Amino acid sequence: MAGSGKAHLRPSDETLLRVEDLTVEFPVGGGDVVHAVSGISFDIKRGETLGLVGESGCGKSTTGRAILQLPRPTSGSVYLDDQNLASLKDEEMRQKRTDLQMIFQDPVSSLNPRRAVGEIVAEPLEVWGPKDKGQQWDKVSVMLDAVGIDPDVARFKHPHEFSGGQCQRISIARALVMEPELIICDEPVSALDVSVQAQILNMLEELKAKYGLTLVFIAHDLAVVKNISDRVAVMYLGKMCEVSESDELYSNPAHPYTQLLLTSIPLPDPLVAIDRELQVDEGLPSPINPPSGCRFRTRCPYADDICSRVEPQMRRVTDDHFVACHHPLIDVDEVEVTLNT
Amino acid sequence: MPTAGADATRLTRSEKTEPLLVVEDLKTYFQTPNGLVKAVDGVTLSVERGKTLGVVGESGSGKTVLSRSIMRLNTAGNVITHGSVTYNGEDLLAKSPRQMRDIWGVEMAMVFQDPMTSLNPVVKVGRQMTEHIRHHLGVSKKDARDTAVELLRSVRIPEPEARFDNYPHEMSGGMRQRVCIAIALACGPKMLFADEPTTALDVTVQHQILNLLGQQQVDRFMTMIMVTHDLGVVAGRTDEIAVMYAGKVVEKAPTKQLFADMRHPYTEALLRSIPKIDDPKHTKLSAISGRPPDLINPPSGCAFSPRCPYAQPQCFTDTPPLGAAPTPGHQYACWFPVGSPEGKDAWDKNLEAKRPQTMAAAGLVNATEELAAGAVVGG
Asked: How far apart are CA B231 and CA B16, in angstroms?
């Protein structure tokens, strides 16, 4: 698992975003390099939500930022429609970025505390949109209204006067005001209480339907990702393990890592037995010297000789389910893999 | 090993039957420039020996302040504490800070939420562990080191001898949390508080740490209070659950009973707002309207009433007491409990009157944080 390959990519005329062989490396001194993302490929159709999941350090946020060319990837291509963002000049990229927006994890610190909400949401328009303040406000107020914030009340208030959930709504309004093609949501609900999290998730679904948004939804909570995503990609140590339509992934995980993630979820039901035998393991290996072959093999119960020598390639499980593993769970025993046994 | 905890077989008969911890009408208020924050507002609960109590609530519900109040860790000058905390027959609130030092670590210990900040970054983890082993158990430097290495091994830190001389930044988050657990366990406490012990960790590491805590609890016959916002974390790992809202316990029941037959609308709403892994994608979530209450000016009557889909006029004026349900051990504070005929009537009435909170809970309209003015309707 944790391999390469492009078997899971769909015809390029159907997709809005197509990422191929994306690699992001960070030099850390002494000649060492952090292999944050190592040659992953994926695509997103217009109007689709792609969930990116994995443990911290798996490269999911780096992937999200690399789509925006922040920073530019070490190699690989990022096609938005037919344009390769990775080959654009800086000024061209700056102009193109209006089509791409981002929502961050911490809603309070991603808003400028010294500016009023009306200014914060209007700022993208200040650069790109109508220069007329009245026209700007028309757009801003529509967006604030769409995210459930009363525009007239909020206009002259500052971020500290709002709760975390409301600040996240304001961030979403700021992202939407440019009418972007694609929004990267990096853990947008992780910092929120569960009752507020549900409000934001429901709202994102509605905005998506209303404005035809395409989302990359990065999160570590698998239940949240399943709820909002059409398709889910599981990442491990800079590689992609498994890509699948969401319901299929959760009911038939083919990758041992996906299964590990799923069995780790604490379910809010006392009648479901917990695997109490799961012991502390070594955790994520260093991204400076990732394991050879399949990167998950050091933690994988099924790993054998081939896993250390050959990097697994993406293989088809069903039409919309692909896995990069030498010993996929579905092939191995032909039985349906059940969760939480 | 001098760190062995309490042992079930060594207890006298009365010790076996008496709860280890009894909290009665505990109130913790903070004086702030904006007013009096009623963080814990009259909590009564007890925990029996060897059992695990889960304390569940959203941010601002008072769950963390409750556990800190029991352990007497709220030491700032603006804290006002009332009520009584009886631990093993002793009144903890009457003890001086100096006397508490003999209780911390030996009798009760706490694992904090953030393993990144609860360790001192400029002191090697070994010294952070041996410091209180030597203080409490009065052993030599070498014995303390042996004990600490043994503890690191028991929390499954690889190469504990080498890790003893590490600084916290040389360890991963999960490993640091295991060090924090080892420190908490070092002097064999009879009672362990775990305050969101896994919230900062990845889901796989969370599972491992929770398993580790569970094992240590059984091995050492510890009593545990697990504080969390995640109903999933407590569902399979506690004997009893107390749900807190606005500084009060609103429902308390044995874990299975709580999930099978929850009575308080807040408990129900909290459970329903979590995305479920078994639901198909794009399932609309049942969000709770409004947001957690202001603890300086909490709503009158039941604190949940402004957000509650069942609320009736009585709820806005009279505070419901924590009363007993027919099932033993189950208590709830609600005038119109879920699953009762009164509750059903209240829901139907509210739905008919188009109370937005009820409409949102029924999935007919969207829940928002702003509660519309005049939304306080009802039968």
From this structure: 29
